[in-house]
Amino acid sequence: MSFNNLDTLYRQVIMDHYKNPRNRGTIEGDDHMSIDMNNPTCGDRIQLQLQVEDGLVKDAKFDGEGCSISMSSASMMTQAVKGMRIEDALSMSKLFSDMMQGKEIDEQEFDLGDIEALQGVSKFPARIKCATLAWKAMEKGVDEQGQS
C-alpha cells in the first residue's frame, strides 16, 4: 500500500472514532475513578472514568470536547484498555507516549489496532498533547488511586 493510501486510511480511522466514538458516556454507580483533565493550549478537555476491579480494567468511558485527535484517541484508548490488567494498560500508555515522541516502538508488545492511526501525529508537535490527553488522564487516575 502506498504512503498516500495508508495516510488516507489512517485519517479515515481517526475520523471514524471522532464521529462514532466508542465508550463515550459515563459509568453508573460509585465504584469507579473519575479524572478530569484539559489541555489549556487548545481547549481540549476530557473526563475519563475507569472501573478497576482486582487489578483489571472492567470498564472505561469518557466524555469531553476537543479536536478530532483528542476525542478519537480517547475512544481508541478506552476501547484498548477494557479488559486489560492495569499494569498492561499503563505499559501500553508508555508505548503510546513513545510512539507520539517519534521513538521506535516494539509493536510486538501490544496489538495497537486502530491506535496505530495516530502515529502520524508525532510529526506535529503541537498536536501531541491532544493525542496523549486521555492517556495522561488514565495514568493520573491510576496514580492517584494507588492502583499500579
UniProtKB/TrEMBL annotation:
Residues making up the signal peptide according to the UniProt record: none
InterPro entries the UniProt entry points to: NIF_FeS_clus_asmbl_NifU_N (IPR002871)
Domain called NIF system FeS cluster assembly NifU N-terminal: residue spans: 10-130
GO function terms (MF aspect): iron ion binding; iron-sulfur cluster binding
Domain of life: Bacteria
GO biological process: iron-sulfur cluster assembly
Family to which this protein belongs: Belongs to the NifU family.
NCBIfam families membership: SUF_scaf_2
Protein name, entry field: Nitrogen fixation protein NifU
Species whose genome carries this gene: Thalassobacillus cyri
Taxonomic lineage of the native organism: Bacteria, Bacillati, Bacillota, Bacilli, Bacillales
